[in-house]
Structures are given as structure tokens and as C-alpha cells.
Write a structure and sequence with these properties.
The protein is mainly alpha-helical. Helix content is about 80%, strand content about 0%.
């Protein structure tokens, strides 16, 4: 076993250490840490490139999105998830000033680092990648509908969808094009192949760095709203517990192969927190800080949950037969 394989086998420990260090650093040096979020797009772009570079796009003649997986994906994200969110927010009587943040983050399926976690959880990362443009476009239309349904027309009108498109271009399209370019170049140049080999080292350290930046830069904002955030915390935790079982049922219903079942679970359980955070900051002043804190709280809960998922998904929920 080489050093890279050892690093991948111990990635949960690496991510756990990153989270702890982020919390400590963010609390001790808040004025420095709060500026880290300016690096997030660059770090995540490198992370996505590192992940894409390991998917053999050029070795597959034709990439087709599995139709059963597509149907299951849409049902899980746009029917099952809203039902679960509706149930949880009413179960815990989430007040209207918190509900906007909860709905923003839980109703939008992830289009970026879900691909990374799908790969780490031994799911079909390529099918997840092929589904991201569809998930982006559909949530542009579906999210305003559900926000109106959950919150009313006035709240929905506050949301600008432009950050979704910008994030998709920067964090998906650019890294993907770069990865395919080097894979094509590697067929003719040994230097490009060496670069791809080096790129295989990127996912684990840059995922750890992503976790550090998100949590360290935002942990200070949570203190001001800690009492309010205690109300939404059970919603996020139960969402992470419930969705794997819902996803397992949907995957069984559609008779999905194990790798696609894993991908479905990660998609339905992983939310679009990094994209909707800019939406929160674009809200009017009375709402933006509280909504941002509500979203960041979900990010922290989700990241911890994902570290458990990458172990539990291939070993418990979707074991190889």
C-alpha cells in the first residue's frame, strides 16, 4: 500500500482533525478566520479538479445518464426531500424567521462536493457528475416553487438565482474541462500523465482544507444566534438520519445497482449549502446574518454526517452482495 492509499484509508481521521482545528482556530482568531471564505471558490475548484481527474472520462466512448437513476434522483430530491423537510419543520415548529434558511439549504440538492463524497463512499461518481447539470437547472425552477409553498410569495421574491449558475460554471464546468483536457493530453505526453498521477493526491487534503475554511470562517457568526440555532439543529440531524432510509427504499423501488443506490443516497442527503450561502448574503439586511448562520449550521452538521456516510454507505446501507 502506497502513501496515497494510506492517506485515503485514513481520510475520516484527517477530516475529523480538520473540523476540530477549524472550530478552535475560528474561535481563537475570528478576525483572521472570517476572511478565509474568500479562498473557498479556489480551494473547491482544485478539489473538484482533483476528483474529476480520477474519473476516466476519455476511456468511455459515450456517457449516458441512467434513466432509472435519473427518475429516482428527481423523485428523491423533489418529492421525498420536501416531504421530509415539511414534516421536520412542523414537528419542531420552526419559526418563520428561521424557516427561510432551513428551506433554502434543505430543498436544494448539492451540485458540487456531492460528487466527491459519492466517490469516497464508493458510489457511481460519473453518473452523479452527469446528473449535476440537470439538478442545477431543475432546482432553479423548483426551489422558488417550494419556497413560495413553504413561506409565501413575499419570501420567495427575495431570492436571486444567479449564484447557482455562477457556482456551477466555476466549480463544475471549469474543473471538468481541465480534467478532460489533461486526460486527453496524457494519451500523447508522459508529462501530462505524471500531472494526472499527482492530481490523485488532491481530493483528501483539499477536502480537509474545504472543511477547515467553511467552518473556521463562519463559526464566529454562530455565536450571536446560538439560541435560535438550537431550534434548527434537531431538524438537520434528523434529516441526515432519515434520508438514507428513504433513499434506500427509493433505490430498491427502482432496482438500482449498488453504486447507483449509493449515489442516490448521497444526492438526496447532501444539500447545496455552499451555493445557497451567497443567496443568504444577498438578502436584505434584517435577514442575511441569521439566514447565513442557519445555513452554516447545516453545513457543519452535514460535514460531520458525510464523514459517517462514507463509512456507513458502502458497509451498511449499500453493501456489496
Amino acid at each position: 500500500m502506497n502513501m496515497r492509499e494510506k492517506l485515503e484509508n485514513h481520510q475520516v481521521i484527517v477530516y475529523g482533525i480538520s473540523i476540530v482545528l477549524a472550530v478552535v482556530y475560528g474561535l481563537i482568531f475570528p478576525h483572521i478566520a472570517m476572511n478565509f471564505d474568500q479562498l473557498l471558490s479556489v480551494v473547491m475548484g482544485i478539489l473538484m479538479y482533483g476528483m474529476f481527474s480520477q474519473i476516466p472520462f476519455t476511456s468511455v466512448k459515450k456517457g449516458m445518464l441512467n434513466r432509472r437513476f435519473l427518475c429516482a434522483l428527481l423523485i428523491a430530491n423533489y418529492i421525498a426531500v420536501p416531504v421530509v423537510v415539511f414534516f421536520l419543520t412542523h414537528l419542531f415548529s420552526i419559526e418563520s424567521h428561521l424557516l427561510l434558511g432551513v428551506c433554502l439549504v434543505l430543498l436544494a440538492p448539492c451540485i458540487d462536493y456531492v460528487i466527491v463524497f459519492t466517490a469516497l463512499g464508493k458510489g457511481d461518481a460519473k453518473q452523479m457528475l452527469l446528473a449535476t447539470p440537470l439538478l442545477l437547472v431543475t432546482q432553479l425552477f423548483v426551489l422558488p416553487f417550494y419556497l413560495t409553498l413553504f413561506l409565501g410569495k413575499e419570501a420567495a421574491s427575495l431570492i436571486d438565482m444567479t449564484p447557482f449558475i455562477k457556482t456551477f460554471l466555476l466549480l463544475i464546468v471549469v474543473p471538468l474541462v481541465a480534467a478532460i483536457f489533461f486526460q486527453l493530453l496524457a494519451r500523447r505526453q508522459q508529462t501530462a500523465q505524471k500531472w494526472l498521477d499527482l492530481s490523485a493526491w488532491l481530493p483528501v487534503p483539499f477536502m480537509a482544507l474545504t472543511l477547515f475554511i467553511i467552518i473556521a470562517s463562519q463559526i464566529h457568526s454562530l455565536q450571536a444566534y446560538k439560541m435560535e440555532l438550537l431550534h434548527v439543529l434537531p431538524v438537520y440531524m434528523l434529516f441526515m438520519v432519515i434520508m438514507p432510509f428513504v433513499s434506500k427504499w427509493i433505490a430498491t423501488l427502482f432496482r438500482l445497482p449498488i453504486p447507483l443506490g449509493r449515489a442516490l443516497l448521497f444526492s438526496s442527503s447532501t444539500r447545496n449549502s455552499l451555493v445557497v450561502l451567497p443567496l443568504a448574503f444577498a438578502l436584505p439586511a434584517p435577514f442575511q446574518l441569521l439566514v447565513a448562520a442557519v445555513i452554516v449550521t447545516q453545513t457543519i452538521v452535514e460535514m460531520i454526517g458525510e464523514l459517517l456516510y462514507i463509512r456507513l454507505v458502502p458497509n451498511v446501507w449499500f453493501k456489496n452482495s
